[in-house]
Amino acid sequence: MQDSKKAQEIRIIIARHKRYDLLFIIIGVFALMIAVLTFIALFTHMLIDGMPRLTWDFFTSFPSRHSGLAGILSAWVGTTLVMLVTALAAVPIGIGAGVYLEEYAPKTIITQIIEINITNLAGIPSIIYGLLALGVFVYQFGFGQSILSAGLALALLILPIVIVTTREAIRAIPVAIREGAYALGASKWQTVSDHLLPYSAAGIMTGVIIGLARAIGETAPIITIGALTFIAFLPPAPIKAEFPFLSFEWLMAPFTVMPIQMFNWVSRPQEDFQFNAAAAGLVLVVMTLAMNALAIYVRYNMRKNIKW
Fold this sequence. Notes:
Elements: H1 2-50, H2 56-60, H3 73-104, H4 109-121, H5 126-140, H6 147-171, H7 175-183, H8 188-215, H9 220-224, H10 258-266, H11 271-305
Helix pairs in contact: 1-11, 3-6, 3-8, 3-10, 4-6, 5-6, 6-8, 7-8, 8-11, 10-11
């Protein structure tokens, strides 16, 4: 009789938990649909307004005071160069810092403070990084209002994301991998370089692409360091015909980026410029989605090729 009563109580508890699970699923689907439908509505609005402006001339023309002649050439070139500097600065430093903190750093109070601060830095408003870059890169180091300053500012912005993602990806590797490498006589560096980094590369690359996808749409740090709202010329070419064929003059050139160009057009009263801004926003959204799709593709292929 007592066993029957206990079984009845267990069934009641299980049924109650199943109701909670169903309620959570309903709430989760509802929240997801709100986010998805909001994005679809905004994207559809940009698509309707901006699609007619997406012509070859739009991509190859400089900004103009005439809406029909205005393009995004200087904006997408500037965005590409700034993101190149951002990736070259943030990715090696972020991955290196993440590996050191996870595998080499002693577990002391100083290390714990550093880890807490890195986690907190990921949530700091982007305008703070812009003010820091203005004081350090623009004035202190004398880089001026250049592509180099913008790239380093955005690198600071995504550096905590890359560090945290690298640590979490390495931490997800089973302990047996480390123990097996040490049992076969591998050194610390051999274990990290030959086993931990290859196995965690998918997670690390995902974090890097997500960080870059965030940086490509940031406006506050770029405005703070003095990005131009109207620019009708391109930076010097990074490749030249004469020896040594590579030029770094473009690093110190003035620039603009896609979000700044969109802001310039949106602030104008003419309706045609609003369509230009919608077209530029459509291009920016597609670029961001492409970077996220690349992250999913890289993660899938890397995980598929790993043999545990």
